[in-house]
Amino acid sequence: MGWLSGMIGGGLGAMVAGPIGAIIGATIGAGMSGRQTLPQHGPGGFNRTQQRQAIFFTAAYSMIGKLAKADGRVCNDEIAAIEKISREALGMDSQTREFALNVFTQAKDRPEPFAAYARQFGDLFWQDQQLCSFMMSFLFQVAMADGELHPQEETMLLEAKTAFRLPESLYQSLRSRYVGQHSSSVRLAKHYENLGVPNNATSAEIKKAYRRKAAEFHPDKIEGKGLPPEFIKFANDRLAEINESYDTVMSSRK
């Protein structure tokens, strides 16, 4: 919770420009004001890693607020799905979930479009393509929480792809992973795409790709990126997906 206490006590909202800074300030003012349960810091009371964690976290929940309202309204099922992702996929404690929901609520009703949050996130993090890919994967998972990718949601995801400077091939790979996986042949193709290899790759090529992907999502490497701790569990789940894809692909060749 270091980034959360540092954000609230250190006035990060005043230090970050643009819509993300505005959301931080509004969320603290609306939902966390008057609390004495968190330690207070001066403006320099939190480090660069905590700043990156706070900005990443706020951007994520700002963008999913806009995604959830893509069809003009936010339904109870969408809120329940987001709370489930927060609790189970990200393993947040109650206080962090409260902050996340406040960010979500503030962002969904503000006039700034989804693209504004995506652009600011991209401007801050585009040089770290792994972090951008990680955020894109998270956005896809939220967009598909109701089992369907709505046209306006896909428009927003494409805006994120552009803002994050992600290649089209990566976007299509993520889309294939999260959207429309039904038949066994399609599911097997998903596992190949998850590993980043074609279905005619040799076993040696598959093993090499697997080692590279697994190294990308190794817990030590992910923690060094400055992700919020709550997103480390999401990264671990991504590593589990890579392991499953490798096992499935190799088993299909026996």
List the helices and strands and how they pair.
Elements: H1 2-10, H2 12-15, H3 18-32, H4 48-68, H5 76-89, H6 94-109, H7 114-125, H8 129-143, H9 151-163, H10 168-178, H11 184-195, H12 203-216, H13 219-223, H14 229-252
Summarize the structure in short:
By secondary structure, the chain is mainly alpha-helical.
Account of the protein in words:
By secondary structure, this protein is mainly α. The chain has two domains: 2-171, no CATH class; 181-254, Helix Hairpins, CATH 1.10.287. 73% of the residues lie in helices and 0% in strands. The chain is built from 14 helices and no strands. It has helices at residues 2-10, 12-15, 18-32, 48-68, 76-89, 94-109, 114-125, 129-143, 151-163, 168-178, 184-195, 203-216, 219-223, 229-252. Helix 8 packs parallel to helix 10. The longest helix is centred in the C-terminal third of the chain and has 24 residues, at 229-252. The protein is globular and about 60 Å long.
Level of helix content?
over 70%
Structural domain count: 2
What percentage of the residues does DSSP assign to strands (E)?
under 5%
Taking the alpha carbons of the first and last residues, their distance comes to: 47 Å
Largest sheet: none
- The overall average pLDDT, rounded, is 81
Overall geometry comes to globular
Number of strands: 0
Query: Total helix count?
Result: 14
Structural class, please? mainly alpha
Q: Report the order of strands and helices.
A: HHHHHHHHHHHHHH
Low-pLDDT segments = 33-44
Spatial extent as radius of gyration: 19 Å
